[in-house]
């Protein structure tokens, strides 16, 4: 059986990329809802519908677990998916607690999409973990657009990030939380703009760790040759140009992995 990774677009490849490193004997499906990306600027009802359609498709693909490698989809739809389906469903949430635990005295900047930043799930998370009111939030929707067109490092990206970060005194921060999986593509530009005292934090490692734990519970870890099958909104990707696009994204993520 296969492990499915689902995202609105190319961002979830960052979670798959980590899983491929630590689970070398599993078969993977990656589902990017390219027909409807981005999710972060759409209505909650629309995102819930898109996620439901993706799950209906994935449950027909002989999957043993689904990783919702999208913070936006997790925030508005995972609870309903767990009620609807009886298999491990691993979601993502911005790693604010992890960031606070790393320091506990300096501020933390959580970046995400607008729907995640403003969502009830985020409010509850911050209320639970941010007892000293150290967390600030910043929506960066344009990064999703940049990532989808593979504009990872350009003057436009730098100008956008510099402008958005200008409102914060970054000397007072210990970490920047990458609360959207698309944001991992931009760690080099962010590193140039951030002072050395600011570290990156994301939820990829913890998400994959939880996936492994859940599969071990069910005795479902396997020892097959590693494979990945890609789908765009339910259509298998076979076009050479699109497969090259996916490989380019994974190559970019390998470079960002070291930052």
Automatic annotation (TrEMBL):
The pathway that the record names for this protein is: Cell wall biogenesis; peptidoglycan biosynthesis
Q: What is its EC number?
A: 5.1.1.3
Q: What class of enzyme is it?
A: isomerase
| Any one biological process term the GO annotation gives | cell wall organization
Checking InterPro entries in the record gives: Asp/Glu/hydantoin_racemase, Asp/Glu_race, Asp/Glu_racemase_AS_1, Glu_race
Q: Give the positions the UniProt entry annotates as the active site.
A: 70 (proton donor/acceptor), 180 (proton donor/acceptor)
Q: Which domain of life is it from?
A: Bacteria
Sequence positions that bind substrate: 7-8, 39-40, 71-72, 181-182
Q: Which reaction does it catalyse?
A: L-glutamate = D-glutamate
Please explain the role this protein plays, according to its UniProt record: Provides the (R)-glutamate required for cell wall biosynthesis.
The family classification in the record reads: Belongs to the aspartate/glutamate racemases family.
Report the protein name in the record: Glutamate racemase
Report the source organism.
Selenomonas ruminantium
